[in-house]
Structures are given as C-alpha cells and as structure tokens.
C-alpha cells in the first residue's frame, strides 16, 4: 500500500541534498516528502526571494497600470468624514507630488521589508517554542519551514497579477486587488475599513498554509496533529485578535 503524501510519521532523514525545485514540487503534491527533503540542508533562498520578489512585482505592476488620478481621488475619498476638506486637499497634493513609478518603487520596497519582518517574526515564534520543547531546531530551520509553507500564498499573488493585466481602465484599488481574498470570495464588505479590511487582506490560501505547517511541524517534531495545529494557530490568533481589538 502506497504511503499517503500527507503522512506525518517520522522517517530517516535523507543524506543527498534535494534541489529547491524538487521541494517546490513536493510541497504542493507530496508535502510529507517535501518536509523530509527540507531537513537535509534547510534551503531558504528560493521561497524567501521568490515570494518577496513576486509580491513586490505585483505592487510595481499595479502602479504602472493604475489610473493615477482616479487612485488619488479614491484614496482621499476613502477617508470619508474622518478628515476635513482642508486635510483632504493636503493629502491630495502630497500624493500628486509622487509619480506612479516612484510610488510603485516605494510600495514594492515597503512590501519586501514588511514580508521579511513577518517571516522572521514567525520564525522567532517557533524558535521560542523550540526552546520550551527542546526539539533542537534553530532560526534557519524555522525560516525554511515558514517560507516553504507560505508557497500557497503565491496563488493569490498570481491572481492579483491577472487582475492588473485584465483591467481595461486602470481603476484598481489595492485593497480589492486579490480576487482570492475571503472578502472578495464570500463577504463583499467594504474593504477599506473594519472587518472588511481584515477579510480583504486574508487570502483563502491561508488555510492551505496552516495545513502544511501542521503537517510539517508534526513530522519534524514527532508531535500529534492536534498539538501541532494548536502551536501553528497561536500566531494567527494573536494577529487577528489584535486587529479585531483595533477596530
């Protein structure tokens, strides 16, 4: 009987270093094999650079194709009654001082920095857990784990690129760019504020990533699926809890 690709039972670590492209294929098709392959030398470069670069590229493409005049008015009017007309004019003038190219470059750099910080923060969380459980894993191992299990997020990234290229008038709002967000798929709330903004920034692929993290953590640490899921969910509970409290 063939082993399930989602089998999380411990197995002997491999000694031959698999390619990152092989791990990329396996993380989608046979996650159990992918997590075994990672443990040979814990590669980081491909998923880390790939995810950050593609997300930064989406921002550059967005501002290269956007109707900039419409975008400025969209952002100003989105403030609604929160600011005075004078403040709106000041905001409008400030945005008009930047070109779409400069705003795209600035946005891409910001996205790259934020994503790197997020990956490092998640990795540090697992390092703290490892220091408590004494499983022996260090920062590089967990950075590899976090970046590879974030590969499903690229589905939303690629979908966003399609939205940019398919737009006929360039009137694309950044908060509704991803057609695979929970808000776009199921709720259709106002994506500029409140719960709608949280849902608009949450891609449905998050559930795939959580499943991969649970499988991978169980495999690496020989923990139960239930315990692994609980450990994986803690950062998400904290993050979304804080965002909800800030509403």
Automatic annotation (TrEMBL):
It is a multi-pass membrane protein. It comes from the Bacteria. The keyword Transmembrane helix applies. It is found in: Membrane. Its main location: membrane. The keyword RNA-binding does not apply. Keywords: Membrane, Transmembrane, Transmembrane helix. Residues 26-240 form the Yip1 domain. The chain crosses the membrane at residues 44-66, 101-125, 145-166, 198-218, 224-242. InterPro entries: Yip1_dom (IPR006977). GO terms for cellular component: membrane. This is Yip1 domain-containing protein.
